[in-house]
Amino acid sequence: xxxYIHVSVDFKLEYQIMSPTVFxxxxxxxxxxxxxxxxxxxxxxxxxxxxxFWIEPLVALADYKGLTKRELxxxxxxxxxxVKDITEAWKKHSCGR
Length: 97
Fold this sequence. Notes:
Layout: H1 2-18, E1 21-25, E2 28-31, E3 41-45, E4 50-54, E5 60-65, H2 69-81, H3 83-95
Antiparallel strand pairs: 1-2, 2-3, 3-4, 4-5
């Protein structure tokens, strides 16, 4: 049992390092996933689905599943409204990789 707890703690720590949360908005978690491409982007997850937006050269939808067009539009606006914060967090996160 002790080994299982140790593995869980290690996994949780690695998960937090590998996909740090940038911020939360309503039921959505905005985060980065390390070990992915270098082009700046942000992932957004909710209980209903997920989406990825490119941040550069312009904010643009990259991929999604399980979200409605209305949700996608709302989330794109949130990304655009927070693009400076996301960019700063990306640069800080990328320096640690």
